[in-house]
Design a protein that fits this description.
By secondary structure, chain A is an alpha/beta fold. Chain A has two helices and eight strands. Chain A has helices at residues 2-27, 139-148, and strands at 38-44, 56-59, 62-72, 78-85, 96-101, 108-113, 128-130, 132-134. Chain A has an eight-stranded mixed sheet, with no helix packed on it. Chain B is mostly helical. The chains are: A alpha/beta, B mainly alpha, C alpha/beta. Chain A binds chain B through residues 2, 5-6, 8-9, 11-13, 15-20, 22-24, 26-30, 32, 54, and chain B through 42, 45-46, 48-49, 52-53, 56, 92, 96, 153-154, 156-158, 160-161, 163-165, 167, 186, 189-191, 193-195, 197-199, 203.
């Protein structure tokens, strides 16, 4: 009887841990334990729209990293620090980032477009600043532009 | 008349504070190291069986049905916006953030909490606790501590099982019955559910609920008036107070975690 | 009595619960190796006295000594050490319902010693044999009759060979046969094991047949004490009323009330 209880308790603990694993791997799709190495890139925008910490950074739709922090620079420009997986460490410094929206009203994310490579370009390393940025589309601005036809860019 | 009301208010306030004090002293006495760790392991296993394994069926069945209902309700709403692809996100987030921890804690209070109170109250009424005392064995270590740890270990596991089964139930209804695309179901879920934000926070919630429910249940039993009437009152008040405590604490935690 | 021969020495003890005084300046000593009975009407806190001796509750003032060691104000660790020398048979038996009779008796041995299982088994069987329940070792408490449960509990309370066994109302709710069995057991265990027994009871005849010394408690204090023979000669009306079970006497039959006629006929409403 005591043996049976031990078995059932063991099975219960096992089922519980299996459930946690399922939630972690299948539902959240997180790389458990694979706290993979990352490096930081910095970009300054004039407007980040609805971008949030932990929003994804994508290259052609593939997630390569996450937004680590958002702060205001001394000249009041929003500064976004991104953590990029070290598996993707070959971006040239001619790459550009833009804040994009998935779908019409979906979440905002950082889209990274790798630039051209020639003799003068260097590979982006930890802490480097990406110069070429495009800010978020703000729906109200777009409507304003459409109505009054005044372009600010 | 007014004086009486104020007196009663004061008296019940004082007795509430005294009850809290006794509950705190009980928990402190139970968790104080007893220096007989390995002798308590079989007791812990026994209690994991009583508290955890015996609550498993109600948790699995409820989780399955709640997941299925969520999926059914969510589908009829989402399909109005043509967004039935997001069904997986809706089902999984509501389960992981709220329903999993909260509903399993409520069920746990009804199933295991009331049983704990009744069992300890009965032990008190039949002088088993006194008899342990007289055998120079601290009932807080022998009886209360293993039940407390069993509750803390069991409830987070039960809540995870609840959420996992619920998501499977949601998949069953959403994908196999209502025809949402299976790939979309999982991928939308995966892109919106965060390990840290949702699963770990849900887990923290259910650990805190476990402390609250087990503590209330054990204290109510240990403090029960040792008569049949006293025990039945204590059992009822365990279920009522821990349910209210779960919902109140849940609001605070949600405000802190997701607010 | 020579104080060194007393296992329990209670002097000038007061105890009150909430605002109600239970004991007022009580003095009592229990001679070593004897059966001492504590008798008195129900509801006067005889069980409370045993709990005071066991250190489960603390007196408001006064002193309780066990083997010359003061129990009032003692720390928990020393108290637990002292309790290993005490056994207590509770009114309900207080068997652990989820353990078999064997495991119940083995429980204190397993908790307090590191003896190998084979020796524990022998000790347990010997204790069960002493109370005549060796055959019931594998039964569960729910399968025992009231008298058997009490005997099994007795086996458990002598498991660690205590110096003192306290019996809380051992005869209540027993049929005449099991009552006789328990009376005989108390006496036999006392003589065979050389322990000291305290029997709290209000069953006058049974107690007087085995007790060496008797205290009668009423009105919050000891009203009479002595050997059973000397108590039978006692002339105090309170003692006579209790010993002979008379309905009316110093302890009135009626709960304090207004005048009977007055209440029956002159009730204005």
């Amino acid at each position: 009887m005591s043996k049976k209880i031990e078995l059932l308790v063991g099975a219960f603990l096992f089922a519980g841990i299996a459930a946690i694993l399922m939630l972690g791997l299948k539902v959240a799709d997180s790389q458990l334990g694979g706290s993979s190495e990352s490096y930081k890139l910095v970009a300054k925008f004039s407007n980040i729209g609805g971008l949030k910490v932990r929003s994804s950074v994508k290259v052609g739709g593939v997630v390569v990293g996450r937004v680590a922090s958002i702060s205001l620079d001394e000249d009041f420009a929003p500064k976004v620090v991104m953590e990029i997986d070290t598996n993707f460490n070959q971006f040239p410094d001619s790459s550009s980032v833009a804040i994009l929206t998935s779908g019409l009203l979906g979440e905002q994310f950082v889209g990274l477009t790798p630039g051209f490579v020639d003799e003068e370009t260097e590979i982006l390393a930890d802490g480097d600043l990406i110069e070429d940025t495009r800010s978020a589309m703000v729906l109200e601005d777009l409507i304003g532009q459409f109505l009054y036809g005044n372009s600010e860019d | 008349m007014l004086i009486n009301t104020i007196q009663n208010l004061g008296r019940s306030g004082l007795s509430t504070i005294a009850g809290l004090g006794r509950a705190g002293a009980m928990l402190f006495g139970a968790l104080k190291p007893s220096g007989r760790g390995f002798k308590l392991l079989p007791l812990l296993i026994k209690q994991l069986y009583v508290v955890g394994v015996q609550s498993l069926i109600i948790i699995v069945v409820s989780g399955l049905f709640i997941g299925m209902v969520l999926s059914l309700q969510g589908y009829t709403i989402l399909v109005g916006y043509g967004a039935e692809q997001s069904l997986g996100q809706m089902v999984s987030l509501s389960l992981l953030r709220e329903l999993g921890p909260v509903v399993s804690a409520l069920l746990f209070a009804g199933r295991a909490g009331s049983a704990l109170t009744a069992e300890i109250g009965l032990m008190k009424a039949t002088e088993q606790l006194s008899s342990l005392e007289m055998m120079a064995i601290d009932p807080l270590h022998q009886i209360v501590a293993p039940r407390f740890w069993a509750g803390i270990i069991s409830l987070p596991l039960l809540a995870s099982i609840f959420s996992a089964v619920g998501i499977i139930g949601g998949h069953l209804v959403g994908v196999d019955w209502l025809g949402v695309d299976s790939g979309a179901f999982w991928s939308v879920m995966q892109s919106s559910v965060e390990w840290q934000e949702d699963i770990v926070n849900g887990g923290i919630k259910s650990i805190i609920f476990a402390i609250v429910v087990t503590w209330i249940a054990l204290h109510k039993g240990y403090d029960a008036v040792p008569t049949s009437e006293g025990i039945s009152k204590a059992t009822t008040s365990t279920v009522v107070q821990s349910s209210l405590a779960i919902l109140g604490v849940d609001f605070v935690l949600t405000a802190v975690m997701f607010g | 009595m020579n104080p060194a021969d007393n296992i329990i020495e209670i002097s000038a003890m007061n105890f009150s619960r909430d605002d109600r005084v239970i004991y007022n300046d009580i003095n009592l000593s229990v001679p070593r190796g004897k059966v001492t009975a504590i008798m008195g009407p129900s509801g006067i806190g005889k069980t409370t006295l045993l709990r005071l001796i066991g250190g489960q509750i603390k007196p408001s003032s006064g002193s309780i000594k066990f083997n010359g060691e003061e129990l009032v104000g003692i720390n928990r660790k020393s108290l637990y050490k002292v309790r290993r020398k005490m056994g207590m048979l509770f009114q309900s038996g207080a068997m652990f319902t989820e353990l078999s009779v064997f495991d119940n008796v083995a429980f204190p041995i397993r908790e307090h010693t590191d003896l190998p299982e084979s020796i524990i088994r022998k000790i347990v069987l010997m204790k069960l044999e002493a109370v005549g329940l060796r055959g019931a070792a594998q039964l569960f408490p729910s399968e025992l009759s009231g008298g058997m449960a009490r005997r099994a509990a007795l086996a458990r309370s002598i498991a660690l060979d205590p110096d003192l066994i306290m019996y809380d109302e051992p005869f209540t709710g027993q049929d005449p046969i099991s009552m006789g069995v328990i009376v005989r057991l108390i006496k036999e265990l006392n003589d065979a094991l050389g322990v000291t027994s305290i029997v709290v009871s209000h069953d006058v005849e049974e107690v007087l047949s085995i007790a060496d010394y008797v205290y009668i408690i009423a009105n919050k204090t000891v009203i009479a004490h002595g050997t059973p023979e000397s108590l039978r000669q006692e002339t105090s009306p309170q003692v006579i009323q209790f010993m002979q079970g008379r309905p009316d006497g110093p302890v009135p039959f009626h709960f304090p009330s207004d005048d009977y006629k007055e209440e029956l006929f002159n009730h204005v409403n």
